[in-house]
C-alpha cells in the first residue's frame, strides 16, 4: 500500500463522527447496514451523514449498495486490512537491525534516507 493511500484512510477515520459511522458499518459485517439505521443509532442529520459517508467512500473504506428502496453501507474489509497491515509491517522494524529492510521500506515510500 502506498503511504498516500494509508494517509487518506487514516485522515478520514481521524474525524470522530466518521469513526463512529465506520464502527457501525464494520460491526454490521459483510451484509452491511442500512444508512437509515446508522442515522438512527448515531442521531446524525441526513445531510451530515451523507457528507461523511462520501468521505469514507472516497477513501475506499466503504461502498454502498441499493436493495429496493434501502441503501446499505458495506465496509471494504480488504482495504481496512491493508491499512492495518501497512502500520503493522512497520512495527519495530528498526529493532531487528535489518538495514536492508529499512532501506527497502524507505525507498518504497519515496522518502529520503536519514
TrEMBL record:
GO terms for molecular function: DNA binding; DNA-binding transcription factor activity. PROSITE patterns: HTH_ARSR_2 (PS50987). Pfam families: HTH_20. It comes from the Bacteria. NCBIfam families: HTH_metalloreg. This is Metalloregulator ArsR/SmtB family transcription factor. Transmembrane segments: none annotated. It comes from Vibrio qingdaonensis. InterPro entries: ArsR-like_HTH (IPR011991), HTH_ArsR_DNA-bd_dom (IPR001845), Metal_resp_trans_reg (IPR051011), WH-like_DNA-bd_sf (IPR036388), WH_DNA-bd_sf (IPR036390). SMART domains: HTH_ARSR. Keywords: DNA-binding, Transcription, Transcription regulation. The keyword Transcription applies. The keyword DNA-binding applies. Residues 1-95 form the HTH arsR-type domain.
Amino acid at each position: 500500500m502506498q503511504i498516500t493511500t494509508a494517509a487518506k484512510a487514516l485522515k478520514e477515520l481521524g474525524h470522530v463522527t466518521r469513526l463512529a459511522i465506520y464502527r457501525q458499518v464494520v460491526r454490521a459485517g459483510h451484509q452491511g447496514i442500512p444508512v437509515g439505521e446508522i442515522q438512527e443509532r448515531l442521531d446524525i442529520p441526513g445531510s451530515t451523514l451523507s457528507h461523511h459517508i462520501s468521505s469514507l467512500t472516497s477513501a475506499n473504506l466503504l461502498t454502498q449498495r441499493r436493495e429496493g428502496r434501502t441503501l446499505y453501507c458495506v465496509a471494504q474489509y480488504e482495504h481496512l486490512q491493508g491499512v492495518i497491515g501497512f502500520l503493522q509491517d512497520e512495527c519495530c522494524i528498526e529493532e531487528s537491525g535489518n538495514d536492508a529492510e529499512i532501506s527497502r521500506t524507505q525507498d518504497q515510500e519515496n522518502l529520503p534516507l536519514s
